[in-house]
Design a protein that fits this description.
Elements: H1 5-19, H2 26-33, H3 37-49, E1 53-55, E2 61-63, H4 65-88, H5 96-103, H6 109-119, H7 136-141, E3 145-146, E4 154-161, H8 166-175, E5 182-188, E6 193-198, E7 201-206, H9 207-210, E8 213-217
Antiparallel strand pairs: 1-2, 3-8, 4-5, 4-8, 5-6, 6-7
Helix pairs in contact: 1-2, 1-4, 2-3, 4-5, 4-6
């Protein structure tokens, strides 16, 4: 069985959607991968034929053992490449996801091992997201909460940020909201924005953007 870049992308998207608490269905994959529904249908047919996924009667897609192994391998490569780009090459944290999306398919097992030896084992990527399955319920169990759920005045550290939206990452970086940054929620406003104090400055953040930021309250 030949594992193509397309197959790796679909298997990784299924695993990542599960990690974000979404049920992987064809519409989910079309949205995550920015492809058409007919393209998803064809891909699902191939992945099912190769024994890499199962499709339930209601349309939910799950990975088989073989499919999970491939997805995890790509996810771990992506994690190492993001760390390489930030820790070795000094690339801005909000740029590395897109670069890693391209490079993750061309890394050999030998180079991957070299990266592991060089970088060591760190749980989180530059966006604060843990490699592997890390569902919303897992984050809540650690005491993290989405920023948009904060009520009242709270001091917190940014724990992680949704990394698959480059414009969002650039916007948050411009406000000083990045993993490890300290912030204080000053007010929950009527228009569903938050007034935050970040690095001594007051900034406004809308609810949709705040929902993509996980914080660890002090």
């Amino acid at each position: 069985m030949r594992i193509t870049v397309s197959k790796e992308n679909y298997l990784k998207a299924i695993a990542e959607a599960e990690g974000e608490g979404e049920v992987p269905i064809p519409a989910t994959l079309a949205r995550w991968l920015h492809v058409t529904p007919p393209a998803v249908t064809m891909a699902i047919r191939r992945l099912k034929r190769d024994g890499l996924i199962r499709v339930r009667a209601e349309g939910a897609i799950t990975l088989t053992k073989e499919g999970r192994e491939i997805a995890n391998r790509v996810i771990h490569r992506h994690h190492l490449i993001e760390r390489m780009l930030t820790e070795i090459f000094g690339m801005e944290w909000y740029k590395v996801h897109d670069e890693a999306e391209q490079l993750e398919h061309s890394v050999s097992s030998e180079f991957e091992a070299k990266l592991r030896d060089k970088l060591g084992t760190v749980e989180s990527c530059p966006h604060g997201n843990r490699v592997g399955m890390d569902r919303p319920q897992d984050r809540r169990a650690r005491g993290w909460i989405p920023l948009d759920e904060v009520r009242g005045s709270v001091t917190a550290e940014v724990a992680s940020v949704f990394e698959r939206d480059r414009k969002l990452l650039e916007y948050l970086d411009g406000l000083g909201i990045r993993p490890g940054a300290k912030l204080r929620v000053m007010a929950n406003n009527y228009d569903q924005t938050l007034t935050l104090k970040v690095a001594g400055k007051f900034v406004q953040l809308g609810g949709p953007a705040a929902s993509k930021v996980w914080i660890n309250p002090a």
